[in-house]
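Worked example (supplementary).
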Amino acid sequence: MSRRTPFRGALLGLVARKPMSGYDLAKVFDSTLANVWSAKHSQIYPELASMHEDGLLEMREAGSRRRKEYAITDRGREELAHWLTETLPTAGIVRNDALLRSFFLGYLSLEDAQEFLRRERERHAHQLEVYRADMASGGPGAEDGWTGGIPLEAGIRYERMMVDWAEWALDEVARLDRERTPAGRARRSV
Amino acid sequence: MSRRTPFRGALLGLVARKPMSGYDLAKVFDSTLANVWSAKHSQIYPELASMHEDGLLEMREAGSRRRKEYAITDRGREELAHWLTETLPTAGIVRNDALLRSFFLGYLSLEDAQEFLRRERERHAHQLEVYRADMASGGPGAEDGWTGGIPLEAGIRYERMMVDWAEWALDEVARLDRERTPAGRARRSV
DNA sequence: GCCTCCATGTAATTGGTTACATGATTCT
DNA sequence: AGAATCATGTAACCAATTACATGGAGGC
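After joint prediction of all chains, the assembly is encoded as:
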């Protein structure tokens, strides 16, 4: 019985679309999948070898430059379907540094809190533009089982939501500050 | 020079509010912070000891049951302010199993894809209710620098957004399916 | 007396990143 | 000739989870 991880699921899903090398896969993890599931080549190469051993992938040496292309096998397809339909997604966002910090904005001066939130707003606004550009430039087609437009839409909605949240939070910290010091301003962080 | 990690930031921010034991902190990481930054007691206890050594926390044995309470020191407050104002948040969502799977919905039958999305919708709708209940029951006050209402609002907006996205995606997979098979139905997963 | 909750720790293992190491091909 | 890119791999390290281990206090 082979391991069943989201990482393996991602590799299976990607090579199911078309045969790819570890190098190709590394680029996908670093671009398209970057905000969903990231992986470095140093993790990818050994995993491909182990999945090949497990009979989930077949391998052929391609081109020059000792490139190795992996394609999915029937066992691999079964495994992919099993992962998608028979297992529940593992827990979601468990590490969000920016949101963690937002618990502690009250330790900052109003100015520092606002600076933090403005930076967040800009960061998300920028990422929103990146996603919108992806979508505009044809966007990900739905060939070969690849429904990349569906998570991309989630990305767009997420960034838009965070921009709105940051706007709201800017009002909120100002409101909290007025409540805290009815007289007015001027205190330092922490 | 001591390590500067979000985990340490979280511990500092929490004990800055009020002195807490490792046990108390573990509960906070497991409830309030669960969807933002999680940590187990086995990670917390050694880190508290190391932060105590670094002079960021002071410790007193409290109550019976060999309970140890940690409070923030001035050095600790400096460190907290530094983390919040001088460092940029580390990269956001990099592991989202559910969204990863949504890249591969095209490998499933329409029925299986819809089942997946309906489950996602329910999962997020449920979490939305949990957050709304938190908010309704007084919600997190803003005492002692604790601005828990601000990330809670993000949580509510996030879950609402994901519910809407799942609804949209249900339409989208149906649309893609119609395009793919103008005639009609009936194909198996993968 | 037994169960549950409070409370703290260490050890083993896993998943993942960073750093190290090498070589081929193409472009300028 | 040299730089950039393609291409693959291993080793060392770190963060975090799971499992192991123990003990006290209070309620039933």
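Two points are worth noting when inspecting this output. The radius of gyration of chain B is 22 Å. Chain B touches chain A through 70 residues (CB under 8 Å).
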